[in-house]
Structures are given as structure tokens and as C-alpha cells.
Design goal:
single chain, mainly beta, 42-stranded parallel beta sheet, seven-stranded parallel beta sheet, 2 helices, about 0% helix, elongated
């Protein structure tokens, strides 16, 4: 029994010799290994199963990765892996020997990790010559990427310049950086279809998708868990500046940051549609921009749940909604486990939240809407069932918002809207009618609460005070137009 590939690819024998694993690793582009005469171009036999390998920047990395089978671990020495052979990886699928059938799902991961003190110590630079992983990773393959920095990957014709996974694959990305990557399809870095993705402690920045999902695209029932990770300066031509979630897919965000992302049409930070679901906790959406849904767009039977101390700050819409909820969708904001804040969001209409068409909205506990400025409305709800409750400590507050036309605080509208509101405070909001050339007919203002077009509002144990309208001849705190207050 021999130790193989001693210069650049070392198999480390650990523990009792229980299995004999065989790997063919071709390093024909590496003259150092060949000159050493250590058999690196031959078949390597290792004393452990799975095999554990190490490699340094001189290696043809794509050739090494191609030889890894499920259960193998490749550890990369610090340095820059660049140029031909550094990207274009091929990941072997798990299979049953002899007939090619699928083995046990998500068993025995292929692990590729950097050995530096931080992710930046191991740089995989594709130099815009292609994707990190070629083709698609098919289930039940389990791939783990740890403690590395991926840069300048590009994919044409389809999305996912870092990787594309489908058919029940499992991808785990832990403590990695992905920067300056893009695709002309969906998912600037990752395209996931009917598979699982877990991202922990990682950083995604300056990523672009020409279509949807500047960093991530989750489709066809894909599931993602984003923990303590940042998505910054990502962009998409259409939907989902950072993340795009579609067709029954789901995404859980815990301790994440979405900042300075931009979408051309909908969902500056994140977009969810067609019965997809978002669950957001302890997460920050900051300075994201889109025409509709500066921070988030949720539509067509989808849901968004926000809880445990999340913050939406400085997001901008160019038409409707800091968060835009559309068509048979569901929004729950639960501040009972920690305050949820909407701060200094701005734009055209409904700068904090816009709800439209057969939706259901629940606000619960400590929620603050403050500092927003808009052409029209702070929180606008049309054709929806609305439930706003306080918990034992606090309720929903609309404070120090302003608009140019009407309703800097809460507006409920349409004959189909029924709002049950308890324990809100709407105070110190201001409507400045006529500012910057905008005018509305006399009698419209409703700075604190505006109820109109036959909406029904059931209001109790609430405070609406110190709201103002300029000029003074207009109604201030309340305005009711063909509507009912009970």
C-alpha cells in the first residue's frame, strides 16, 4: 500500500484500514507533479474511505475535482487558483455501481474546502472564462463548499455561474465569498431546481442575472436556508435583485442582510411568485430598489412571514410598495418576538407596504413604521382582509411619516376590504398637499388614517393624534370617504 500524489495531491491515511477506495486523478498539465515521479497520473489507492486529499495552486484543479467521488474531501492550500483548469468543475453524481441507479439521497458529500484563516485566503478566479461548476449537479449528489472565495465566474445560455443544481441535489455553502459573477439567464451565482440549498456565514456581492435573481434563483419546488449571510450590490434585469423564488419554492432567511440590490421590474431585494413562500427573521433589507416592491415583491398565491427583529430601511420603489403584496397572497408581520421596523423607506406610492387584490394581512405585536416619505401613502391596502393586533407589550405604530398627497400613515380602501384594527398609534404624520406641483381635490388628506371607497374599518383601543395636513383647510388625522368606521 502506498501514499499517492505526495507533492500536490496527498492522500492522508487516518484510522483503521477498512475499505480500499480507488481514484483516477489526471494531472497531465502539471509538470511539477510529473517531474517528481510520484505517480500522480496513475491510479491512487488510499487507506481511508472516504479519501482525503490536499492540493496547492499549481494543480489543474478541474482535473482533481473530476476525480472526487461521494465521500471524498479536497482541501485547498491558500493561494489563487486562476486561469485554465481552475474552473469548469465536473461533480460526480452518487450512483449504485453496475446499473447507474440513484443511491441513498444526500449520503456521503463531496467536500471542497479552503484551509486558510478566512475565505479570502483561497481564491478561485475563473477570469470570466466560464462557470465554476460545468453542467448541472443532479440529485442525489451532496456538495459542500467551505471557506473559499469564488470570483469572476460567468455562464451563458443558462443561469448559475457558481453552480446549477437540480433533481434532488443538496448544496451546502459555508463561510464562502462569491463576487463579480453573473449569467445571462436566471441566478447570477446559483440556479436551483427541485433541490435543497443551505448557505451559512457567506457573502455574495456584485452579482448579476440578465433575467431574474441577481444572486439566487430558486424554481420548481427548490428549498433554501440562508443563515447569517449577506447579499449586496446584486442586480437582475427583471425580478429579484438578489433572490428569485418561483413555482412552489421556499426560502428561509435568518440573520441575513440584503443591501443595495436592484431589480428592473419587481422585488429589489427578493421576489416570490406562483405559490412560493418566504420566511424572514432577524434580517435586514436596506437600500434596495425596484419599480415595484423596493425590498420585496410577493405575488400570485405566495406568502411572506416576517418576525423576530427584522428591519426594512431606506428601500425605494419607483411605482408601488416597499413590500408589494399582490393577488391572493399572504403577509404576516409578527413583532411579538422583537420589534419589526420600517424606517425611511421612500418612493412613489405606499413606501412601506402596498397590498392589492384578494390578499390577507396580519400585523401582530411591536411594529414600527417611521420616517417614510412618499408621493402618496405610507401603508396602502386595497381589497384585502386586514387584522392588526397588539400583544401584551406593544402594537403597530405609524410615526413621523409624510406624503405629498394623502395618508402618510395607514390607508384602507375598496368595498372588499375589511380591516380589524386594535391598539395602533398613528401620530406626528404629515401630508403636504400641493408640494412639488402635485394637487388633489379639496377634502383629501387623512394623514393618520384614511378609509375610502367603501372600505370597512373596525377600530378599537387606538390612538390617532398630532397628525397634520398642509394647507390647514384639509382633514388631518382621519378621512372617511364613502366608508364605514365601527
Amino acid at each position: 500500500m502506498r501514499t499517492c500524489c505526495s507533492v500536490l495531491l496527498a492522500a492522508r491515511a487516518r484510522g483503521p484500514r477498512q475499505h480500499l477506495a480507488t481514484y483516477t486523478l489526471t494531472l497531465s498539465h502539471d509538470p511539477v507533479a510529473q517531474a517528481a515521479g510520484d505517480g500522480c497520473t496513475a491510479t491512487c489507492e488510499c487507506e481511508t474511505d472516504p479519501c482525503r486529499f490536499t492540493a496547492s495552486p499549481q494543480v489543474n484543479l478541474a482535473s482533481v475535482v473530476a476525480g472526487l467521488v461521494p465521500g471524498a474531501t479536497l482541501t485547498l492550500a491558500p493561494g489563487t487558483y486562476a486561469g485554465g483548469g481552475s474552473c469548469g468543475w465536473s461533480i460526480q453524481a452518487a450512483s449504485t455501481p453496475g446499473n447507474g441507479s440513484v443511491s441513498v439521497v444526500h449520503e456521503r458529500p463531496i467536500t471542497i474546502r479552503g484551509s486558510g484563516q478566512s475565505a479570502s485566503d483561497v481564491l478561485i478566479d475563473c477570469q470570466a472564462m466560464g462557470a465554476v461548476v460545468d453542467g448541472a449537479i443532479n440529485g442525489p449528489t451532496h456538495l459542500r463548499l467551505e471557506n473559499m472565495h469564488f470570483k469572476s465566474a460567468q455562464r451563458s445560455g443558462v443561469g448559475g455561474s457558481l453552480l446549477r443544481a437540480e433533481r434532488g441535489a443538496l448544496i451546502v455553502i459555508d463561510n464562502c465569498r462569491v463576487t463579480d459573477c453573473g449569467s445571462d439567464g436566471e441566478g447570477g451565482a446559483i440556479l436551483l431546481s427541485n433541490s435543497d440549498l443551505e448557505i451559512r456565514g457567506s457573502h455574495f456581492e456584485v452579482l448579476r442575472a440578465e433575467v431574474n435573481g441577481g444572486a439566487l434563483a430558486l424554481v420548481n419546488g427548490a428549498r433554501a436556508l440562508l443563515i447569517d449571510s449577506t447579499f449586496k450590490d446584486c442586480s437582475a434585469g427583471n425580478f429579484g435583485g438578489a433572490a428569485f423564488v418561483l413555482s412552489g419554492s421556499s426560502c428561509v432567511m435568518d440573520g441575513a442582510v440584503f443591501a443595495f440590490n436592484e431589480a428592473g421590474a419587481k422585488g429589489g431585494g427578493v421576489f416570490a411568485g406562483d405559490n412560493s413562500h418566504l420566511n424572514v427573521s432577524a434580517t435586514v433589507f436596506k437600500n434596495n430598489t425596484s419599480i415595484r416592491g423596493g425590498a420585496a415583491m410577493v405575488q400570485f398565491g405566495s406568502s411572506l412571514r416576517i418576525n423576530r427583529g427584522s428591519t426594512f430601511i431606506g428601500n425605494e420603489n419607483q411605482a408601488y410598495g416597499g413590500i408589494y403584496l399582490l393577488a391572493d397572497s399572504f403577509l404576516e408581520i409578527d413583532g411579538s418576538g422583537g420589534r419589526i421596523e420600517f424606517v425611511e423607506n421612500h418612493g412613489w406610492v405606499a413606501v412601506h407596504i402596498n397590498v392589492y387584490l384578494r390578499c390577507h394581512v396580519i400585523f401582530r405585536g411591536d411594529i414600527l413604521f417611521t420616517g417614510g416619505w412618499a408621493r402618496d401613502q405610507g401603508v396602502y391596502i386595497w381589497d384585502a382582509i386586514v387584522e392588526i393586533f397588539k400583544d401584551s407589550h406593544a402594537g403597530t405604530r405609524f410615526q413621523n411619516n409624510w406624503a405629498q398627497l394623502s395618508s402618510a400613515g395607514l390607508c384602507v380602501a375598496s368595498p372588499e376590504t375589511v380591516a380589524v384594527v386594535e391598539g395602533i398609534v398613528s401620530e406626528d404624520n404629515n401630508v403636504r398637499l400641493g408640494d412639488e406641483g402635485y394637487t388633489r381635490v379639496a377634502g383629501e388628506g387623512g394623514t393618520g388614517v384614511w378609509v375610502w371607497t367603501m372600505a370597512s374599518l373596525f377600530l378599537r383601543n387606538s390612538i390617532v393624534r398630532r397628525n397634520s395636513v398642509s394647507p390647514k383647510s384639509h382633514p388631518s388625522s382621519f378621512l372617511f370617504h364613502l366608508s364605514r368606521l365601527r
